Amino acid sequence: MLPPFIPKLIPDKEHQTDESAIQQQTSKKKPPGFSLEQSEGTDVTHTSLQTEPIQNQQYVLNEHLFLTNFKTMECANKLQHSYKTCLYYHNPKDRRRYGNFYSSEMCEFAEKDQVELCPLGEECPKSHNRLEQLYRQDKYKKKFCSFYPNNLYNCEYGKYCSFAHSESEILIDLIHNYDYDEDFYLFHYKTVWCPFNLTQHDKVLCVYAHNWQDYRRKPHVKNYEPYLCLSWKHKDIILNYEDGGCPNNENCNRCHGWKENEYHPFNYKVKPCSNGLNCNKGSLCPYFHSQKDRRYYFLFQNKKSLISKKDSLNERSIKVFQILP
Predict the structure, then answer these.
(1) Do residues 165 and 148 make contact, with C-beta atoms less than 8 angstroms apart?
(2) pLDDT confidence bin for 58, thresholds 50/70/90
(3) Alpha-carbon distance 124 to 278, whole Å?
(4) Residues forming beta bridges with residue 306, ordered by sequence position
(5) Which residues are paired to 127 by β-bridges?
(6) Contact at 8 Å (CB) between 296 and 290?
(7) pLDDT digits (tens, 9 = 90+) for 30-39
(8) What separation in angstroms does the CA of 27 have from each of 24, 43, 71?
């Protein structure tokens, strides 16, 4: 008998249990005069969602599928029932191979609906159907269901859906709930993939990443330098990170793309904006528009250090950089 679900008590984003971790998400961005119930259909993003501060939410017991054995064994129930809400597989497209040796990239034969012609067969290192592609640790509950938030009753998969049906159910850091302060643009902006499965989506205004040129590695985790990597293909459309041209991939100590470069803590708001006060990008612009908006760094023992506008920086700050009060 397969263990169907793993109960999860939330809020518990990324296994954070201390009070300071929860405090990071207590300030919500709420557009004035807009509520979740006023949105029509599912074409909404973080800019149109009004969410509730975590300290006001009740703890909810979420159920997540035990993915190890999900859909890896054939269903023995011969009575008519929905395969979409069954733990076992019913046909080749409903089956997952056991193990984690294959990636989420779709096999070219599976894309042509000719998976039986795949020369690698069961040993193929790519996904052979959508089920294998979505029900894996790096994909499961990392995006919202396409019926979220107002039409969830239309989802035929219910609690078996690979996509999240609520903020408490999703398994990524919802950075749109953070305060959009200086720390946000330095350390969180574009560092998380967009969780909204929408056709109408303003990707320019979205604080999440949508492609590899739009994505930023967390500078306080990777600690890369504020200079462009000469190997990275800055102008190309990159489908896989490994195809970016840099042999060091995620471990490169230089910026991959202009977003990593211009929003780097040593570059953000350090240079003047060419449009000056006529700039319409607001806080999204990585350049300064006035002396009040400007940031500084100085050399200390041959190392760059930042001068913060704040009296102290919170846990999201870069620890390796010296900060002046």
Answers:
(1) yes
(2) low
(3) 54
(4) 297, 323
(5) 106
(6) no
(7) 333 333 333 3
(8) 7, 24, 40
Q: What is the three-class DSSP state of 193?
A: strand
d(CA 146, CA 155): 9
Q: Is the pLDDT of residue 189 over 60?
A: yes
Three-state DSSP string of 225-277: CCCECCCCCCCCCCCCHHHHCCCCHHHCCCECCHHHHHCCCCCCCCCECCCHH
For 240-299, the pLDDT digits (tens) are 899 999 999 999 999 998 999 999 999 999 999 999 888 988 788 999 998 888 887 765
Q: Cα separation of 88 and 70, whole Å?
A: 7
pLDDT band at 306 (very low <50, low <70, confident <90, very high): low
Confidence of residue 3 (pLDDT cuts 50, 70, 90): low
Judging by beta carbons within 10 Å of its beta carbon (0-12, 13-18, 19+), is residue 235 exposed, middle or buried?
A: exposed
For the chain, where are the alpha helices, taking DSSP H only? 19-23, 108-111, 130-134, 182-187, 219-222, 258-262
Q: Distance of CA 94 to CAs 71, 89, 101, 200, 222, Å?
A: 7, 5, 18, 30, 39
